[in-house]
Amino acid sequence: MAKKYYAIKEGFDFSKNIKVENKIVDTWAECQKYIKGVKGAKYKSFTTEGEAKSFLFEGCGMLKKGVDNYPTECLHIYVDGSYNISTEKYSYALVAVKNNIIEHIESGSSASNSDRNIRQIAGELEAAVRGLEYAIEMKEERVVIFHDYEGIAHHATGFWNRNEESSVKYYNKMNDLMSRGIEVIFVKVDSHTGDLFNEVADEKCKEELSIVSENVVYSYLRDNTITVNSSETKIKLKALAKDRINNIIALDGKLDEGKENLSNEASDKVIIKEEVKEKIAVNEYEDILYKDLVFYLRKLPLEKQKDVLNYAEYLYNKENRIN
Q1: Can you state the percent helix, strand and coil of the chain, rounding each to 5?
Q2: How many alpha carbons lie under 13 Å from residue 259 in its C-beta half-sphere?
Q3: How far, rounded to the nearest angstrom, does the alpha carbon of residue 266 sit from its chain's CA centroid?
Q4: Nearest to 51 by CA among 96, 103, 6
Q5: What sequence ranges are listed for the domain RNase H type-1 (predicted)?
Q6: DSSP states of 1-31 as a string?
Q7: Cα separation of 28 and 43, whole Å?
Q8: Residue 213 and residue 35: Cα distance in Å, rounded?
Q9: Of 19, 111, 152, 253, which one has the greatest count of Cβ atoms within 10 A?
Q10: Which 8-state DSSP code applies to residue 57?
């Protein structure tokens, strides 16, 4: 009997509770492990491994991060989805980034009966739709959508057959949005490989469902900073950053303005200045500026560092003369 190769475009590994994509196996028994009981599973058998690979990868119109080139100056949106077996809820999250600055974070969860059977894929699809809607709202002409579920690209472009109601609705919605004059580039990023913004999206999904994450973002913030556009965006990272919230730099330089404290510890540090009181220069805003200044100052050549310090001394002396 001739050997066969089974190319699995979409399946699910119930033993590990993870989706299976673009996997090639050489026995029917192993193939069944990933397709049996999986609604919408996509697979096909071939007599050669080359044919199987062609079936999975050729003509898909999808790029791979770290392999292919894609625009770097436009808006980047990272999308992800998750699923909680015990609550039968799915979640979605998107992280919009421009020039390495997080400009927007959105996440949510749902227990919709119509979408539960496709697990976290429902969240992945919703995140992509909401991300593209956000890009259009921001009047972007081009956007790169980063995703770990390949159906984000393949269902939107029609490369995969649409056998489920969810994929049909997604295809129609995405094509309606893409027809509004915005260029969309799809880029596959491997999940759980330390890609910062993809990890932010992943952990926001888990936060929505009260699933314990691997704290990748928290670990990153030990020796690094993350820059966001506003204090409102910073607040959305509070649960991920924990006591390292001060390593998230908000460009608007504002505090929370009372909507929600960044943390009890940070709140205790905020001291309101009054002219009749002794001047105190310790508050969270100045802590953030100081950390940011030191971080970037160290990246300058020594001579440039001296120039910055000399200018700071000049401003200090000038202020003292005025006072």
Answers
A1: 40, 20, 35
A2: 10
A3: 26
A4: 6
A5: 71-210
A6: ----EEEEEEEEETTTTEEEEEEEES-HHHH
A7: 11
A8: 27
A9: 152
A10: H
Q: What pTM, to 2 d.p., does this model score?
A: 0.65
Structure tokens at 217: 């973002």
Which residue is associated with the tokens 């077996």? 85
Chain centre to alpha carbon of residue 207: 13
The length of the chain is: 323
Residue 185's pLDDT is what? 95
Lowest mean pLDDT among 49-53, 72-76, 85-89, 197-201: 49-53
Structure tokens at 103: 């400009």
Tokens of 281: 């220069």
Quote the radius of gyration of the chain (alpha carbons, Å).
24
pLDDT band at 8 (very low <50, low <70, confident <90, very high): very high
Distances (CA, A) of 135 to 11, 98, 158, 173, 221: 30, 11, 21, 14, 28
Whether residue 38 is predicted with pLDDT greater than 80 in this model: the reply is yes
Supply the pLDDT for residue 104: 98
Contact by Cβ (8 Å): 92, 81: yes
Residue-averaged pLDDT of the chain:
84
Q: What would the pLDDT profile of 220-237 be if each residue is shown by its tens digit?
A: 999 999 999 999 999 999
Position 285 scores a pLDDT of: 52
